[in-house]
């Protein structure tokens, strides 16, 4: 489990290293609670044990669960069972704390604040009166395009769009249009320094993200956005454990020595605003991975030390395996405008937002990643819980409907390759 | 003359697009490439061309914008409509930035406050400038602009503010000067700004329109559209005061500059409906005017389409098709006397 709390909600002094932002984050944050007041509260101690244990165990845990714990504590705090200091510590931990002098530097260094980038990417912002109008609409429950608060726009997924790639997908979502191609390469340990046997799917993915300069005001913005997108996609797909992909069978060619490396190219064709960028890219990446075909291989062992020779399996070589990535997640961006949570903001709603919450969710409804960024006023922990709940409904619905169609397509694809023995047509006499 | 001509051209474009969309006509290919003469005052004064199409300009002609000569023939270098004025042959592109004309009502957004003027984005090639001396002061004060006014310019219009204005002058270096010297121009509040293709908005008598669905709109000639909820009660009151004989040019009250109206969910929904209708028309390149907007809204109401579903692709195309048929039926009737 990891929760990346960015900007002001990141603890002071610990922002600099990226490692801190990953797994150790929740331990540190909750240690703070521990130090402050935990000995008085049994519930809190329970909470601490679960979070730190799960953080040690691996990248997967039931996040809404612990968040619910956190909010119950906060409710309890409201009932003045818990002292103010604990409440302070918890709110601090979950992101509600005013700007401190370190925040400015933290923003500059992390380079991933959505709000910051947004301000730079839109050449012209919204005027105060327009923002008022947007906010008043959201307060009234009607957004500017007629959606209600938690409605999302249509998501269109198309797979198999690039004939030369092992897997590809194109996604239209709102104002965003993303193309993802997956290419397969065999990686082994002898190749260069940086190659290590991957332990998770995320480690087997190499990203290359292109955002055309025309989409942003200056090229540095594009680079920043690409960096942020890559970090988040990596984080989301890193969170998958082996089971998610039949890792042993599908990705490791020879355990501990050779494996399939997937180089992933994300090309952003069109976008306005940034919120839907991650959602569209994650959906496209998932669809592309699901439809990725990995060739079947024969390994010819020589001696024990040398790497085996690789042959394409002639008999079944033309019927590649599908990379069954059913358990990979999709993401949903929510933002808070005037204290109210809305799902899938468009480019202008983004400009009015106080905070962003991006939730990655798999088909079982488990959180695979959570990104929170907010302005200097922070965000209520309860709205994180609400966001996760809302995302659960949307993402699970998406995943089910996308899979329904993808499954059919992929079955068709597999059937295409089945009758290999008679591929010579009428010349085949027997 | 230019204005009426461009109106015809736009209506024509719309009809042709409809035709090519439904396929009931011979098709866009035959139409575009068919041999046709372009002469001043011929009965087919405008047509659609693609880059590389022969313009069939024989004899003496003057090369205009959007054309070039290849193998001794005048050839279009842009996709657009052909305009001939005497022997000058030009191609006016469909997709272009806004080309201003003096007197156009535009909606823009203030980009920068510079010395004694604002720079305004009006979707033209250059940013337009609005001089401090070219605005109405609050309360309609008539006086010389002082140094204090100059220091206080952000109080009138700040960066990011949407404004409506009129094109006052196009100077010899093609820079554009705006003015807001009337009560109807000025900062816009309590609404949304939309951006559509400028070629879809024809120059008309009225650009400040009240749409039938309770929304007032400013259809800027530059393709920016301002929508705000239009309160039916206050409108009646306004009408009464007008009838009572008060000047419509009366100085503005301070209130109109400052107070935002409180808007209920129902009004937000009305604006959302108009917004989605306009974006639907824009996506299908149908000219945007009060008639077409209300046609879309009526069609949506008839088919029982929810406001939020109007942005859906299949719904949009279904509605746009019916609206196009209705519009083209109407334009056949309307255009005949115009041409004669």
Strand order of the largest sheet of chain B: 7-8-9-11-10
Order of helices and strands of chain A: EHHHHHHHHEEEEHHEEHEEEEEEHEEH
Tell me what portion of residues of chain A adopts beta-strand conformation: 15-25%
* CATH architecture descriptor name of the largest domain in chain A: 2-Layer Sandwich
The N- to C-terminal Cα distance of chain B equals: 15 Å
User: What's the number of helices of chain B?
Assistant: 9
Estimated structural class of chain B: alpha+beta
Helix content of chain B: 25-40%
Mean pLDDT, all residues of chain B: 77
Number of strand elements of chain B: 16
Gyration radius of chain A, to the nearest Å?
23 Å
What is the radius of gyration of chain B? 22 Å
CATH class designation of the largest domain in chain A? Alpha Beta
Low-confidence stretches of chain A: 1-124, 419-430
GO molecular function, one term (chain B): RNA binding
InterPro entries (chain B): Exosome_cplx_N_dom, Exosome_RNA_bind1/RRP40/RRP4, KH_dom_type_1, KH_dom_type_1_sf, NA-bd_OB-fold, S1_domain, S1_RRP4
Keywords (chain B): Exosome, RNA-binding
Family (chain B): Belongs to the RRP4 family.
């Amino acid at each position: 489990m990891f929760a990346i709390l960015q900007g002001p909600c990141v603890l002071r002094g610990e922002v600099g290293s990226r490692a801190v932002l990953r797994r150790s984050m929740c331990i540190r944050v909750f240690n703070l609670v521990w130090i402050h007041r935990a000995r008085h509260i049994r519930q809190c101690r329970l909470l601490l044990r679960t979070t730190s244990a799960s953080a040690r165990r691996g990248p997967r845990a039931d996040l809404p669960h612990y968040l619910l714990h956190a909010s119950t504590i906060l409710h309890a705090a409201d009932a003045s069972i818990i002292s103010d200091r604990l409440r302070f510590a918890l709110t601090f931990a979950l992101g509600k704390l005013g700007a401190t002098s370190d925040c400015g530097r933290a923003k500059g260094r992390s380079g991933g604040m959505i709000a910051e980038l947004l301000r730079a990417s839109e050449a012209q912002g919204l005027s105060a009166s327009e923002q008022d109008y947007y906010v008043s609409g959201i307060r009234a429950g009607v957004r500017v395009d007629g959606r209600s608060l938690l409605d999302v726009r249509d998501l269109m997924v198309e797979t198999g769009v690039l004939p030369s790639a092992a897997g590809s997908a194109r996604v239209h979502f709102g104002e965003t249009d993303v193309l993802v191609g997956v290419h397969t390469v065999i990686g082994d340990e002898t190749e260069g320094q940086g190659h290590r046997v991957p332990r998770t799917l995320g480690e087997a993915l190499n990203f290359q993200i292109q955002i055309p300069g025309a989409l942003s005001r200056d090229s540095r913005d594009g680079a920043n956005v690409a960096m942020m997108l890559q970090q988040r996609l990596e984080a989301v797909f890193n969170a998958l454990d082996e089971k998610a992909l039949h890792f042993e069978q599908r990705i490791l060619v020879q355990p501990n020595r050779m494996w399939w490396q997937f180089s992933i190219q994300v090309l952003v064709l069109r976008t306005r605003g940034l919120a839907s960028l991650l959602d569209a890219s994650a959906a496209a990446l998932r669809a592309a991975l699901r439809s990725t075909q990995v060739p079947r291989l024969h390994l010819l062992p020589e001696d024990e030390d040398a790497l085996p020779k690789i042959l394409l399996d002639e008999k079944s070589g033309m019927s590649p395996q599908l990379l069954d990535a059913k358990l990979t997640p999709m993401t949903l961006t929510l933002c808070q405008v005037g204290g109210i949570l809305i799902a899938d903001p468009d480019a202008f709603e983004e400009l009015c937002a106080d905070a962003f919450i991006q939730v990655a969710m798999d088909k079982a409804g488990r959180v695979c990643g959570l990104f929170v960024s907010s302005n200097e006023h922070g965000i209520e922990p309860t709205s994180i819980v609400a966001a996760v709940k809302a995302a659960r409904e949307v993402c699970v619905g998406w995943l089910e409907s996308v899979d329904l169609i993808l499954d059919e397509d992929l079955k068709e694809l597999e059937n295409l390759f089945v009758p290999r023995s008679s591929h010579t047509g009428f010349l085949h006499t027997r | 003359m230019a204005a009426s001509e461009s109106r015809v051209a736009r209506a024509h474009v719309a009809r042709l697009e409809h035709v090519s969309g439904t396929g009931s006509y011979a098709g866009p290919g035959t139409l575009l490439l068919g041999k046709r003469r372009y002469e001043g005052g011929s009965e087919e004064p405008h047509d659609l061309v693609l880059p590389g199409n022969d313009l069939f300009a024989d004899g003496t002609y003057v090369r205009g914008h959007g054309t070039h000569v290849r193998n001794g023939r005048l050839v279009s270098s842009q996709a657009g409509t052909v305009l001939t004025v005497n022997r000058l042959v030009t191609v006016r592109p469909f997709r272009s930035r806004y080309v201003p004309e003096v007197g156009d009502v535009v909606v823009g957004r203030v980009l920068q406050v510079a010395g004694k003027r604002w720079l305004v984005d009006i979707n033209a090639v250059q940013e337009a400038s609005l001089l401090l001396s070219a605005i109405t002061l609050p309360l309609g004060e008539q006086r010389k602009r002082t140094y204090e006014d100059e220091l206080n310019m952000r109080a009138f219009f700040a960066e990011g503010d949407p404004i409506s204005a009129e094109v006052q002058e196009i100077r010899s270096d093609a820079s554009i000067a705006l003015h807001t010297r009337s009560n109807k121009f000025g900062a816009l509040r309590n609404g949304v700004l939309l951006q559509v293709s400028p070629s879809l908005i024809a120059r008309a008598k009225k650009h400040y329109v009240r749409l039938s669905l309770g929304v007032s709109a400013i259809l800027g000639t530059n393709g920016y559209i301002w929508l705000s909820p239009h309160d039916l009660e206050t409108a009646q009151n306004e009408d009464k005061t007008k009838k009572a004989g008060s000047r419509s040019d009366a100085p503005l009250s301070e209130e109109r500059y400052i107070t935002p109206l409180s808007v209920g969910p129902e009004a937000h929904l009305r604006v959302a409906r108009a917004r989605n209708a306009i974006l639907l028309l824009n996506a299908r390149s149908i000219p945007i005017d009060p008639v077409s907007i209300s046609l879309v809204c009526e069609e949506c109401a008839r088919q029982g389409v929810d406001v939020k579903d109007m942005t859906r692709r299949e719904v949009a195309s279904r509605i746009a098709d019916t609206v196009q048929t209705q519009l083209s039926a109407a334009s056949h009737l309307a255009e005949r006397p115009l041409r004669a």
